[in-house]
Design brief:
The protein is of the alpha+beta class. It has helices at 9-12, 30-36, 54-70, 129-145, 182-202, 208-221, 233-239, 257-268, 282-285, 299-311, 360-363, 367-384, 400-408, 415-431, 474-480, and strands at 16-18, 41-43, 84-87, 102-105, 114-118, 121-125, 163-165, 168-171, 176-179, 206-207, 294-295, 320-323, 329-337, 340-347, 350-357, 392-397, 434-442, 452-456, 459-463. The longest helix has 21 residues, at 182-202.
Length: 486
């Protein structure tokens, strides 16, 4: 791939190839060839192996090639034409869970053709075989025009089950599914079991190089299974936990508490934040630190490996449903306060409400745990009843601890919430196509939960739940709400 792209003009004068060992073995031209060689080095004009930014510049130029292939989006004869961008966001009245959240739409109403690039390997998608062939042909034409390699022997017919590519196996036959090959799944399980064995044998002396190798492969697997990425943090902390700027758990140390507080104030006020206040200065630590041969396993690694063992159970690869096949979406809202709890599931059939009191052994638990347990228990019950099959679920909560633990996979303050999130992932991994945990906050003008707003990790996306269910007639409320006594 590197040889396809020219080296920058300002770098060519520093790049050369030693040709002193090269000889002409043809006796007829040998003497003339030797006379013509007047220097020991010849200038190199292409990206080359060993140069740190060669991958970056080569991929950057591949993306430029991609945009050249797109061409004029308003040209009706262009296979990559598109007329408008449509937002299909959760909470909107016409939200369709079978479609992407953001999509480029052609003038004829179909999804636009698209190019996907993994390093130097390209794949093209289209709404029908003919348009897919046209899109591939145009991309191939641009590649040849620019002098880039296009291996025709690797060309395949447009299919809905294309097989392995970039670490994943996808299918759009009946619904959008993604998985990995059986060989890759077995290797993943074997590496997780190897991690577990190393910890049980001697958690204070783990080979660092081997951990880096395992981490590299698991990072590749997370391209398919996003839910695995939350449980690789322990590997990061253990591999780099020997550094001087790390605490006993492997996290970076804070060196200036006063500066951190000032940075937090600036962040809250929307001002620029000095990120250097959050980490140890390089000159304090020292620029050169030789990594040790063995490292000590951090506490996070132990819990992450236990979670990975549970999530990778089974002899067949986990199949992840990336998009639902029917127009089914559900919104789950829940809260817990004092001795009681409540939750409600809202879907096309209406609203089903549940409320009750905590058992004595749960009343002394923290409010974060009770609110998290309320939601996780409800999801598990819905999954066991088959109500989440082929459905997209959005979980509303005003508990940022539960939200943060869901996306991070771990709570430093509560082991119990960490275990709840693992239960949620293990259950929904096989029963629920798609789920999101969203924070909710309420409009001060309205002051009612029925006028909530959605945000995904801090970004508001849409106002939802505009229908005030309490305004319905009593008979309708009895039909929509089911009161369950704990």
């Amino acid at each position: 791939m590197f040889l396809c792209f020219n080296l920058g003009l300002n770098l060519r004068k520093y790049a050369g190839v030693d040709i002193t060992h090269m000889r002409n073995t043809n006796p007829e031209t040998q003497e003339e060839w030797e006379r013509g060689r007047v220097r020991r080095f010849e200038r190199w004009t292409r990206n080359f192996m060993g140069m740190k930014d060669s991958p970056y510049r080569s991929i950057q130029l591949m993306l430029v090639t991609k945009w050249m292939a797109y061409g004029d989006r308003l040209d009706k004869d262009n296979p990559y034409q598109w007329e408008r961008v449509e937002l299909n966001l959760p909470g909107s009245e016409d939200y369709d869970p079978t479609l992407p959240w953001v999509m480029k739409v052609r003038s004829d109403g179909h999804l636009a053709c698209e190019i996907y690039i993994y390093v130097d390997d390209c794949r093209v998608t289209g709404w029908c075989k003919l348009e897919c062939w046209r899109a591939v042909r145009k991309l191939s034409t641009i590649l040849n025009y620019l002098g880039l390699q296009d291996a025709f022997r690797k060309r395949t017919e447009p299919v809905i089950d294309p097989g392995p590519w970039a670490g994943s196996v996808t299918s759009t036959a009946l619904m959008v599914l993604v998985t990995v090959t059986i060989e890759k799944w077995r290797k993943t399980r074997a590496l997780v079991e190897e991690l577990d064995l190393m910890i049980r044998q001697n958690s204070r002396k783990i080979p660092r190089n081997r951990l880096e190798q395992i981490r590299g492969f698991l990072n590749y697997v997370t391209r398919t299974y996003r839910w695995l990425s939350s449980y690789i943090k322990g590997l990061h902390l253990t591999i780099d936990g020997w550094r001087k700027d790390r605490d006993m758990d492997g996290y970076r140390k804070f060196v200036n508490e006063a500066a951190i507080k000032e940075a937090e104030k600036d962040m809250a006020a929307g001002r620029e934040v000095d990120l250097d206040a959050f980490r140890v200065k390089e000159e304090v630590v020292g620029k050169e630190q030789k990594p040790p041969e063995f490292v000590e396993g951090k506490a996070r690694l132990l819990s992450d490996v236990a979670a990975l063992m549970k999530l990778t159970e089974g002899d067949t690869p986990a199949v992840q449903q990336s998009r639902v096949g029917e127009l089914l979406v559900a919104y789950l809202m829940g809260d817990a306060s004092g001795d009681g709890f409540g939750n409600g599931i809202w879907d096309s059939k209406g609203v089903e409400f549940e409320a009750g009191n905590w058992k004595e052994e749960l009343k002394h638990k923290s409010s974060n745990f009770r609110e998290s347990n309320n939601l996780v228990t409800k999801v598990e019950a819905l999954a066991d009843e088959g109500k989440l099959k082929d459905r997209e679920l959005f979980i509303f909560t005003d508990n940022t601890t539960f939200e943060g633990t869901f996306y991070k996979g771990h709570s430093k303050s509560s082991k119990e919430i960490t275990e709840l999130i693992l239960r949620l992932r293990a259950k929904s991994m096989v029963t629920l196509p798609s789920k999101s945990v969203l924070s909710e906050y309420w409009s001060s003008k309205v002051g009612q939960h029925s006028y909530g707003k959605l945000r995904v990790r801090g970004a508001q996306i849409h106002s939802v739940l505009r229908k005030n269910v309490t305004d319905s007639k009593p008979a309708q409320r009895e039909e929509h709400f089911k009161h369950i006594k704990a």
